[in-house]
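Sample log: Alpha-hydroxy-acid oxidizing protein.
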Amino acid sequence: MKHITCIEDLRQLHKRRVPKAFFDYADRGSYTEDTLRANSEDLQQIKFRQRILVDVSKRDLSTTILGEPAAMPLILAPVGLLGMQHGDGEIHACRAAQAAGIPFTQSTMSICSIEDIAAAVDKPFWFQLYVMKDRGFIKALIERAIAAKCSALVLTVDLQVIGQRHQDIKNGMTVPPEWSLAKLIDFATKPAWVSGVLRGKRRTFGNLAGHLKVSEDITALSTWINSQFDTSLNWKDIDWIRSIWPGKLILKGILDVEDAEIAAKTGAQAIVVSNHGGRQLDGAPSSIEVLPEIVDTVGSQMEIMFDGGIRTGMDVVRALALGAKSCMIGRAYAYGLGAAGEAGVAKAIDILAKEMLTTMGLCGVNTIAEINDNVLAV
Ligand SMILES: Cc1cc2nc3c(=O)[nH]c(=O)nc-3n(C[C@H](O)[C@H](O)[C@H](O)COP(=O)(O)O)c2cc1C
Ligand SMILES: CCCCC(=O)C(=O)O
């Protein structure tokens, strides 16, 4: 991996090593992908102020996330189907995060179950919840996260209905997968991936096993989600979730100031300013465009996390400069996982950490607390 120098290198390796349907599932976005593109493009528009002759010999990325020490202001975002990018992918990603001293968030739509991960790692991880119509099942799922000692619940609030990802339909991303000659050839030319996935603990959604008829529904993933997820979910349900989950609660997927104000009244400890990585409402603003307004309005009441479009350490510093306390990364580490399993995720985190340290040095700051709009050129 010594010639891997940036996240784009990991993306290229992921593309070569993993079947097209799974790479595209990770890489692509909804409809025209305008919002997907805007996330990264708007970050790149933000210019730094170069500052010189400041003693930057003691640069340090350490910070706190929801009161807990963290080695850097990064969190691995919930990403569905990681176990299809690499056998036991959720376990590998969680181990890499814990070794790097940052939180890992397990998606409801994981291949490994909550219990699989808990048995394989030493420290607590975060659990992301999607609310389905079967509330008894959701209550049991939250109770499983409590039993596994998950240290935060991330309630995703921007996927009551799923934004269509054209490429997933073209690729036959169904449960179980739709086969074609091209797909068989694609799989046959990726033997390392196939044997890794076959050695993995599971081949379908581990958290849902035994509860929902995943394998019997031969439908597009999106049709299946639309049939299972609860479109009636609303603000009142947060009280219901809080009556089951006693720990830290994070609402993920807020883009609107009015929603952020309501969120601040729910007692949630944090929100993630996010458009789901451009996979949901196409035509929504980029996450970075709305971040400053949300920070100004509710930043003193709750912790503001950010995600969407982060591909470099420079992007992390940009989001922190505009008021985020920490950043979630999705694709940046999913590419690492597809490229090289746990080592690839570790590499992705390391690349971002080194880029952050260099950016801080060239902007003349030593600590995360010092990063504010002073590091930006107006
Ligand atoms: C392949 C993939 C699967 C995702 N699955 C979930 C999920 O299960 N739950 C969730 O809350 N967000 C999910 N997300 C959204 C991420 O948590 C995050 O918001 C997004 O990836 C951030 O954008 P970025 O990929 O540009 O970093 C997914 C994102 C990707 C790329
Ligand atoms: C498996 C579908 C839900 C996962 C998800 O949130 C995403 O693909 O963006």
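Observation: Residues 131 and 237 are 10 Å apart (CA to CA).
Observation: The two ends are 38 Å apart (CA to CA).
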